[in-house]
Prior knowledge:
This protein is of the alpha/beta class and 572 residues long. It folds into 2 domains: 5-314, ABC transporter transmembrane region fold (Up-down Bundle); 328-425 and 471-571, Rossmann fold. It is built from 20 helices and 12 strands. The strands form 3 sheets. A 6-stranded mixed sheet has the order 6-9-10-3-11-12, with helices on both faces. A hairpin with a 2-residue loop joins strand 4 (393-398) and strand 5 (401-402). Helix 5 (112-125) packs across helix 8. The two termini are 66 Å apart. This is ABC transporter ATP-binding protein.
Amino acid sequence: xxxxxxIIRLMMIEKKDILLSILFGFIAGITAVGLFAASxxxxxxxxxxxxxxxxxVITSTVKLLGVTKAIARYAERYFSHRATFTILSxxxxxxxxxxxxxxxxxxxxxxxxxxxxxxxxxxxxxQNFFLRVFYPPIVLALVFLSTILFTAFFSFYIALVLxxxxxxxxxxxxxxxxxxxxxxxxxxxxxxxxxxxxxxEFLHGFRDLKIYQKLNEKEQKLIQSSDxxxxxxxxxxxxxxxxxxxxSFVTLFISWLVLALGSYLVIxxxxxxxLLAMLVMISLxxxxxxxxMAAFPIHYQDSKRAQKRLSGVVEDSNExxxxxxxxxxxxxxHAIPIVMDDVSFTFQDELRPALKNIHLTIAPGTKxxxxxxxxxxxxxxxxxxxxMSIKDHGNILIDHLPVEQIEQESIxxxxxxxxxxxxxxxxxxxxxxxxxxxxxxDTDMAQALEKVGLSSFSLDDAVYEKGENLxxxxxxxxxxxxxxxxxxxxxxxxxxTSSVDALTEQMIYKHMFEQAKNDTLILxxxxxxxxDQMDQIIVMDQGSIIExxxxxxxxxxKGYLYEMKQIEQDML
Length: 572
């Protein structure tokens, strides 16, 4: 129930529509009972040939109740569905607000297909919470209690039978099937996430699967996931149909019991015979509102499981407990110093630490290169600076502020970032450059493209999804164009020119260093070129800093950097 409290709090925002749904649901239910009760009474009364005006009054009452029922049922559906869609909208917004700060590291924990299944499928599942779980029991209780009170005026014993029927169909049977549902422990949501994950991987990796002749194996795995999902759906639906069947049997049995008991009371002279048809019709009608309770256990368990899966994505965020108004904001009008003191970090479910006891000081306005073999922790260090991941222990200060106290958006807003993999959206070159800021002119963008050797590109040239029509080097140069246009005071560059030829690389670095002359710049690279332009070089291996100093100093030490430089020269 703890997980569902989130949904209930969001529901209370729409309390007006909720109250109207309950009100019109009650009116529709009670007028339906009144309609059939009046119809039963009319049939019995007509058999006794009453005065004509009596039949007119009763007939008019039946018609009025019929019209009222139709209007009330429409209003109930209107307000309940409006409330549901608004609640879903609020849920999506709330979930996205919690998910958005975790986006950089969330893929370390969840596969993309599973995330898609949770964001789309589980949110959609929660639409049944209000429509099938929350307000139907309230309407049922109100209609039933009103009907029982009305029936008690004519026969106390029949009112007790209806009360027993309410307890059975509204409480006992749903509780039993809720317990049975827990015993079944349906994994529909889990299997749907697995199927979504397998389908996503199949589509993304189709080309590689085709090349390595593994397409059939992946297809079989996808079919197995689909079959497992279908089996779980079948189990769930069987339980649902079984619940509905038992509920229907009990309601019909109660109606037969009312008929039998009513007949006995008529024979004993304790009930007027003219009222028997009315009471039987009441028993047949009042249980219509009990029908949704048959599906109550399924929808309750589905909603609970769906909300638990959604909460599981955002609850372990490892974020600081500070509220937004307590967070600090980086200032963008000066070069930014960085200090890392005894910082360590390990990825989730990994035994090997990615970073071990890092001590690093970067003075404002200096240029620092971080080099080392692949897997040495260079990119992970940059993720910690960008607050994409949270350190295990140690201290990280950016502009003399602990990174935990700095707004994540503030760090990104004041940083020029080029990652190893940069995303490009479907559209044009102009669209992808305008991500930097909206007030860029075509002249600004064209000049920036020229600085990275993309002067042949037009701003109206198409860019496919994920930049599929761009080469690796073109993607990197387009990403560098963005940071040149952004012009922040902190530069974090992760292998920005690994796919660019040497001549173009020299031209790009010339423009970047000119623009970042008074800024703090950190360059992560496998290549050992342009290191003589750096104020400081950090050499990493297996998550630790093994050398640091100026280029001249490290070359004189003839350590790791010296050996790597010699190997590079020999290869050239």
